[in-house]
């Protein structure tokens, strides 16, 4: 009889607990937060950084293409249709001729009227140094790529979606074959070649936001939130005039109080139209951008991962809905999304070793652009290159507020063409 009583008591407690959790869950499964719509705010400092890095990325991609070429050079004909692929606003031939310290022009061995381009000795040295950086940061590369795959629903991503992200994630050309103990190439359900995580590493299942809070047992869901643990808050850097608005402050306070859902948790049970899901989407995008070297990437690159990251159809509205967290740039005829906290006074916070190496590459580029053919002779020793002064522009336009929740901002209606 006592055993029966204990069983019934245990069952009743279990049902009561489930009802409480279900009630809390239901409270979060609808939209209760009143939102305001903000006009897109231009940040000249971040735009300048994106402008500079667009050329840097294009030069690095050209360098890698020459290295991969079996003949060790590229012809002007092969560069003819690469402008859009490189993200350039000028023809590739004109671009590559700007940097004689990196790319040496010479006539084709057989067709003298056909210009060809190979790497200069300095560019080869820079490439060798880059390979050394990859070797020295082997563990970091594995962690970065693992975390990207861990955020996806099936722990795998199509290679055609990962290759455009190599520059942003700091991955070497052979990233898909370099770490066979951690990743393997498989055929996806859609027939595409995919990179799949071999084994789930628990030590990586901690988001950047959780690390920032320096908590050994950070809350990762509404169960911990219910027990009284404070929700994790996203750091915010408000545009001019933004933080002083009472409506915006009330909205952000309510948003921050929602429980934080780790991007490494399975969230498919959450109502896709709820505030809780919106905060989860913010968390996923925050974590993904945190994994990039420059805390930014193209919006369309994220769109190509929408299903894998379990994001809603119109998730890109998040970028302009939370301008204290994200910045949407329209520079260089494309749309780039950046994490505001990744930059302070025009400088990248906690620069990665690969970004510091790319600074050297940019120094050589800039010297070649200024001095043209004389640049090779006046270059200082690469090991003595000093850190370049970063642009510290932070000018922003004033924002405008409305009471509309789902309106479209100037940045949201911008062209999506990359």
The secondary-structure class comes to alpha+beta
Gap from first CA to last CA: 72 Å
- Mean of the pLDDT scores? 79
**How helix-rich are the residues, as a percent range?**
40-55%
SSE order: HEHEHHEEHHEHHHEEHHHHEHHEEEEHHE
- Over the alpha carbons, how many angstroms does the gyration radius reach? 25 Å
Total helices: the number is 17
Q: Approximately what portion of the residues adopt beta-strand conformation?
A: 5-15%
Main β-sheet, spatial strand arrangement:
2-4-3
What coarse outline follows from CA principal-axis ratios? globular
Number of domains: 3
- Uncertain runs: 1-29, 215-229, 372-376, 378-410, 412-418
Major sheet summary line: 3 strands, antiparallel
Counting DSSP E segments of at least 2 residues, the number of strands comes to: 13
What does it look like?
The protein has a 3-stranded antiparallel sheet with strand order 2-4-3. The protein has a 3-stranded antiparallel sheet with strand order 5-7-6. It has helices at about 1-30, 45-70, 85, 90-95, 120-135, 140-150, 160, 165-170, 175-180, 210, 220-225, 245-255, 275-290, 300-305, 315-320, 355-370, 375-380, and strands spanning about 35-40, 75, 105, 115-120, 155-160, 185, 195, 295-300, 325-330, 335-340, 345, 345-350, 400. It is about 40% helix and about 10% strand. By secondary structure, it is an alpha+beta fold. The chain has 17 helices and 13 strands. It has 3 domains: about 30-45 and about 205-215 and about 230-345, no CATH class; about 55-125 and about 355-390, Arc Repressor Mutant, subunit A, CATH 1.10.10; about 140-200. Residues about 1-30, about 215-230, about 370-375, about 380-410 and about 410-418 have low confidence and may be disordered.
């Amino acid at each position: 009889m006592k055993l029966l009583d204990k069983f019934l008591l245990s069952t009743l407690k279990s049902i009561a607990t489930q009802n409480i959790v279900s009630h809390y869950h239901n409270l979060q499964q609808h939209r209760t937060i009143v939102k305001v719509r903000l006009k897109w705010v231009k940040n000249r400092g971040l735009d300048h950084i994106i402008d500079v890095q667009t050329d840097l990325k294009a030069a690095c991609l050209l360098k890698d293409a020459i290295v991969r070429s079996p003949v060790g050079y590229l012809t002007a004909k092969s560069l003819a249709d690469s402008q859009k692929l490189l993200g350039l606003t000028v023809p590739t031939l004109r671009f590559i001729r700007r940097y004689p310290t990196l790319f040496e022009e010479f006539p084709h061995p057989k067709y003298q009227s056909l210009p060809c381009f190979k790497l200069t000795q300095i560019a080869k040295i820079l490439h060798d140094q880059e390979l050394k950086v990859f070797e020295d940061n082997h563990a970091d590369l594995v962690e970065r790529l693992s975390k990207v795959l861990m955020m996806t629903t099936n722990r795998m991503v199509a290679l055609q979606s990962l290759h455009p992200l190599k520059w942003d994630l700091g991955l070497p050309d052979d990233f898909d074959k370099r770490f066979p103990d951690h990743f393997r190439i498989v055929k996806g359900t859609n027939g595409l070649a995919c990179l799949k995580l071999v084994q789930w590493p628990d030590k990586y299942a901690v988001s950047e936001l959780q690390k920032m809070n320096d908590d050994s047992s950070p809350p990762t869901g509404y169960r911990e939130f219910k027990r009284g643990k404070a929700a994790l808050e996203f750091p915010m850097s408000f545009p001019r005039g933004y933080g002083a608005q009472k409506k915006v402050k009330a909205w952000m306070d309510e948003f921050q109080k929602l429980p934080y859902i780790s991007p490494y948790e399975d969230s498919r049970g959450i109502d896709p139209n709820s505030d809780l899901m919106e905060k989860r989407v913010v968390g996923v995008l925050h974590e993904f951008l945190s994994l990039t070297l420059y805390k930014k990437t193209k919006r369309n690159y994220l769109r190509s991962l929408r299903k894998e990251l379990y994001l809603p159809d119109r998730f890109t509205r998040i970028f302009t809905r939370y301008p204290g967290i994200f910045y949407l740039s329209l520079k260089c005829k494309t749309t780039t999304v950046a994490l505001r906290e990744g930059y302070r006074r025009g400088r990248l916070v906690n620069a990665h070793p690969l970004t510091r190496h790319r600074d050297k590459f940019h120094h050589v580029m800039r010297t070649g652009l200024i001095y043209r053919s004389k640049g090779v002779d006046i270059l200082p020793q690469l090991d003595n290159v000093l850190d370049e002064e970063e642009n510290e522009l932070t000018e922003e336009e004033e924002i405008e507020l409305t009471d509309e929740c789902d309106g479209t901002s100037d940045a949201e209606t911008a062209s999506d063409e990359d």
